[in-house]
Design a protein that fits this description.
Elements (H helix, E strand, L loop, with lengths): L1 H46 L26 H17 L11 H8 L5 H20 L27 H11 L5 H6 L10 H15 L3 H42 L1
Length: about 250
């Protein structure tokens, strides 16, 4: 009889343990289900679009000062801004020395510039041409040559040869400013109008966008931006989840 009672007690203990295990599993499943429901609610709140007037963390737009001492036309100034931004973004990988500021480049393309500003314009144009003729180069069907049959890439760039090299390069890369091309047949490149000089350098910068160095830099930058956006989105999701859980806890205790 004692043996039988011990067996009953052991069996009852095992049944109690199994019952406790099942209850614990049911509670864990319920907790997981509530966690999934909570995350779905949080995601629905995160993905819900908000109107601009409903934003709680909006910031006022900054007051941008007007650019002073603009001495060139609107189109020329637009080209100057583009050139400066391009050189600040890619000048290092293109090995362009002495990156200009807006004022410095604006003064360099004026026709009444000082000798040092004229020299800077010539030097910057030579650097841009040397890089552009090397990479991306010329279209296969339009490899330019001088009147003596010399390849354009073999010409030593200097103040004396710059105008003809620029003219042939612009013809080979289909520059649309026919007036400037005609003018450069008799006038040196630094005597062109400021708008023509800005357009000329802007065209070379546009050609350099096809450079393998620039393309690699753009790809690397895009990859970095994508990674930063993903990291930012993950952080924002974590912050919004914690805010939502905190709000639920406050509502529950209230």
């Amino acid at each position: 009889k004692q043996w039988y009672q011990r067996r009953v007690a052991i069996t009852a203990g095992r049944l109690q343990l199994e019952e406790n295990r099942l209850v614990r599993m049911a509670r864990e499943e319920q907790a997981r289900r509530e966690q999934r429901d909570l995350e779905m609610q949080v995601l629905s709140v995160i993905k819900k679009p908000l109107e601009d007037l409903e934003l709680t963390d909006s910031k006022p737009l900054p007051d941008l000062p007007r650019f002073e001492n603009c001495a060139v036309s609107e189109d020329a100034f637009a080209d100057v801004l583009m050139i400066v931004e391009f050189l600040h973004a890619f000048g290092e990988i293109l090995e362009i020395e002495n990156i200009p500021t807006v004022n410095k480049l604006q003064c360099a393309i004026l026709n009444n510039q000082a000798p040092e500003e004229k020299e800077y314009f010539i030097q910057l144009l030579i650097e841009l041409l040397q890089v552009a003729m090397k990479d991306p180069g010329f279209p296969q069907s339009k490899t330019p040559k001088t009147a003596t049959g010399q390849s354009l890439t073999a010409v030593q760039l200097s103040e004396n040869t710059l105008t003809e090299v620029v003219r042939l390069y612009q013809i080979a890369t289909t520059w649309e400013d026919e007036d400037s091309l005609i003018t450069m047949q008799t006038v040196p490149v630094w005597c062109l109008k400021p708008s023509q000089k800005a357009s000329l350098m802007g065209h070379i910068c546009n050609e350099l966008l096809s450079s393998s160095l620039v393309a690699t830099k753009l790809d690397d930058s895009q990859t970095e931006i994508d990674n930063l956006r993903k990291e930012k989105w993950n952080l924002e999701c974590q912050i919004k989840k914690k805010k939502y859980r905190l709000r639920l806890c406050v509502d529950t205790t209230a």
